[in-house]
Amino acid sequence: MFFICAPVYTQTEIKRPLRTVNQNEQKQSAGSRNAAALTALSIPGIDKELTLHYIQQYSSPGGIAWLNAVIRRGSPYIPFIREEVRRRNLPEELIYLPVIESGFLSTAVSKSGAAGLWQFMKNSMGPFDMKVTTWVDERMDFWKSTGGALRKLEENYTYFGDWPLALAAYNYGLGGVNRVIKNTGIKDYWELCNRKELRTETIHYVPKLLAVSYILSNPRRFGVDLWPEDPQWTRVPVGVSVDLDLLAAEAGVEAEALRISNRELRYNVTPPDGNYHLKVSAEAAPRIQAALEQKDRKLIKNYVYTIRSGDTLSALSFHYGVSAELIRNANPGIRPQFLKIGEQILIPALKEVAPYQKAPGEKSAFEGTHLVQKGETLWALALLYNVDPEVLAEANGMGLNDTLREGRTLKTPIRQGGVNSE
After folding, report:
1. Does pTM top 0.90 for this prediction?
2. Pairing with 251, which of 140, 175, 191, 292 sits 20 to 30 Å away (CA)?
3. Tell me, which fold does domain 302-348 have in CATH?
4. 310-343: per-residue pLDDT in tens?
5. Tens-digit pLDDT profile for residues 286-298
6. CA distances from 237 to 1, 216, 270, 285 (A)
7. CATH topology for the 11-222 domain
């Protein structure tokens, strides 16, 4: 989970009961809600003491200001999520789970490495058609991650037959919740919370969601500006690698709108394999398609570099901040070991860099050395020196899977914060 707005209680603190909220306070707080309204949500627990505490917390002036900011940030995604939740006939409260998970920040990354609106870990995204590559981190794809998260929640509910437990499992893991149930013999989220059997974050997780859902289900009562955009997203096959800014300019659409809907792109450039589907509004789709069909227009930025004496693909890769593989992909037929002086090659412009000018006598990027120890491989050394394994092999005139001879000296980058082995 990425965000925690309200204070986090320690295990010691949570054992001390919260102040009892009497009926008069319930009527006065949270916009004069009544008992009937407190039972309006699909998931049980709106009347629990900790939920009432978070209703008060989130409905404070600061809490409402924060919720308004989060809803504005999530505005492009909320209608899509709402449609998916309703299509699957799931509880409406799930629409607002990204408020708790990521604050509706599609690029959010937690300390533990969870990413995206729904905070997927790399080791949990596999079954849900998401991948992380050089080009994309699909945990930040609002379309795929929403489908994956709702499917995961459905599976949790099918397993437990109970929404509070299904949500607890989304936060703690199905295995973690199942172990607690087996150890205690209790299959009731709220009773497990009362007995402090779940971890503190999970005890607060469902009450937070219910509190946020209650407030956002009554926006006028609480002064929440819940009027999200409704762009009616569609997906357009790209077919080639394109730069979003160039495509936006050619199609006459806002570049930021394209970036917002395709946050999974690491470099603001679609992958070169051509299998990517760009997510765009239905209104903008015809213009995007028309721009993509203009074969004579270049929609990707490249540096054009003329090979000079002494140039190597590894040095160019190091300078321009792209892998040797990407340079080879941009230049079919190029032979890294036999670069021709005067030959012009394309280098993908994934970031702004100064032109590469190798001065006479300049050392290459591989200024260090490494004495090979028994059992070492190029793969392991690539990790050690934080370099592409193919670049390391090329710099030493080797194939990637060649066997390293113990005692051989390899050219390597200088390790930061330390010295190379000799």
Report:
1. no
2. 140
3. Membrane-bound Lytic Murein Transglycosylase D; Chain A (3.10.350)
4. 788 878 888 888 878 778 877 877 877 677 878 8
5. 999 999 988 777 7
6. 32, 35, 11, 11
7. Lysozyme (1.10.530)
